[in-house]
């Protein structure tokens, strides 16, 4: 009888224990609370919309814009993000392999990479515009400049994570350098590569917007500059909200790709 009573009490306790909320609900609830406080503070303080528009004013300004115009700007920004990120990754992969493989090269080049990374892109952008012109290539290069450093560091760090015994085994089997990197080092580097890609893809959004600020007539960055120049602050905030959604979408797209192609590299909790 005591065993039955204990099992019954355990069952009741298990049923009474609240189930954990889905992981997405907590940030959504936090965001909703912030929006409510923002709306209430704006109404209570009576702030003019040209200083700090309320969420409701931002929403009205966003839906007042022609959807075709939104899509035109979003498409232009996504194109710069994709091409800038692709250029950064194409440069980072062989550069990271060379930094990992050759110590003299690493000692001579790594400080230069730090110098480039520490130089504000906003300061470099006008020079690039004079050199390359206000073209798509300039915007892509600016995006790549702000994106490539975390990729280089992440890939180079990941390539150094291979267990030494596997490297000794591959060398005893006389595996080629290409096989060593593709079949041994790269799989162990993937967690670091995906982590670097998640950081870099969000930086690519920042780079694309900076490029559109200074050298574009299309894109979300240009749309923000246009809106603020005409004191349409609520419209600029709506464009900023679009950028946030784009960044979150790209970040979770990378996480989804990692979950599909290499789920073992995800940390506990699925990388959320």
TrEMBL record:
Membrane topology designation: Multi-pass membrane protein
Superkingdom of origin organism: Bacteria
Pfam families xrefs: BPD_transp_1
Residues spanning the membrane: 20-38, 76-97, 109-134, 140-160, 188-213, 233-254
Places the protein is found: Cell membrane
Keywords: Cell membrane, Membrane, Plasmid, Transmembrane, Transmembrane helix, Transport
UniProt record similarity statement: Belongs to the binding-protein-dependent transport system permease family.
Protein's UniProt name: ABC transporter permease
């Amino acid at each position: 009888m005591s065993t039955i009573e204990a099992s019954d009490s355990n069952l009741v306790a298990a049923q009474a224990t609240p189930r954990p909320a889905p992981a997405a609900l907590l940030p959504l609830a936090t965001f909703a609370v912030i929006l409510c406080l923002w709306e209430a503070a704006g109404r209570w303080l009576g702030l003019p919309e040209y200083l700090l528009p309320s969420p409701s004013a931002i929403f009205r300004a966003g839906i007042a814009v022609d959807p075709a115009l939104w899509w035109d700007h979003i498409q232009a920004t996504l194109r710069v993000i994709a091409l800038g990120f692709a250029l950064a990754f194409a440069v980072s992969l062989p550069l990271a392999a060379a930094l990992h493989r050759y110590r003299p090269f690493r000692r001579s080049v790594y400080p230069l990479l730090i110098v480039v990374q520490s130089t504000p892109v906003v300061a470099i952008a006008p020079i690039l515009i004079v050199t390359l012109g206000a073209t798509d290539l300039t915007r892509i290069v600016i995006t790549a400049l702000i994106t490539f450093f975390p990729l280089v560091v992440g890939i180079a760090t990941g390539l150094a994570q291979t267990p030494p015994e596997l490297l000794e085994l591959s060398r005893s089997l006389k595996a080629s350098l290409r096989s060593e990197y593709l079949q041994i080092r790269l799989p162990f580097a993937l967690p670091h590569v995906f982590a670097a890609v998640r950081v870099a893809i969000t930086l690519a959004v920042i780079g694309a917007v900076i490029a559109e600020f200074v050298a574009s007539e299309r894109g979300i960055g240009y749309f923000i500059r246009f809106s603020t120049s005409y004191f349409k602050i609520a419209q600029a905030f709506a464009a900023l909200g679009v950028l946030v959604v784009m960044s979150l979408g790209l970040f979770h797209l990378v996480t989804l790709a990692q979950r599909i192609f290499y789920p073992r590299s995800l940390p506990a909790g699925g990388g959320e």
